Amino acid sequence: MASSSTSNSPCAACKFLRRKCLPGCIFAPYFPPEEPQKFANVHKIFGASNVSKLLNEIMPHQREDAVNSLAYEAEARMKDPVYGCVGAISVLQRQVMRLQKELDATNADLMRFTSNDMSNSSFSVFPGQYGARMGHGGGSFDHNSGFSLPYASPWNNNPTGGSSEEGGDGTM
Ligand SMILES: [Zn+2]
């Protein structure tokens, strides 16, 4: 058995799988050795052979995005074995629905106030009415922790994706 060269370290996938990282390794561009946990998570949830097959089936320019989304999903699934990233999605969907109702109610108020203003222009009554209404309906979502996810999500610090390969890597 020949000893492997130490000049260039194997990618995180080949290191994890204890195999030689050959030139053209499908994993090497997306699983650098500095991020061992990224591959470990993806392998645990999806399996290395499934990931290899998936990467071979898609265009090379889409592979990095695919790997990053797999890493994101795998990390979410590790943290929440029942819901995975669906847990975060449903929290955000409920939040969107609540905010949409909030917005509709506020727009309706605004319309009513505007039409009142046009008809009798008694401006002094609006701030009190508006404030009371916001205190009743508007304040409710702010105070019952509508924004907090049920678990800490380090990958959520980067909502735009950031275009870096460490997007899915949990930096604890
Ligand atoms: Zn490799």
TrEMBL record:
Residues 89-116 form a coiled coil. Residues 9-110 form the LOB domain. It comes from the Eukaryota. Residues 152-172 are annotated as: Disordered. Keywords: Coiled coil. PROSITE patterns: LOB. Pfam families: LOB. Belongs to the LOB domain-containing protein family. This is Protein LATERAL ORGAN BOUNDARIES like.
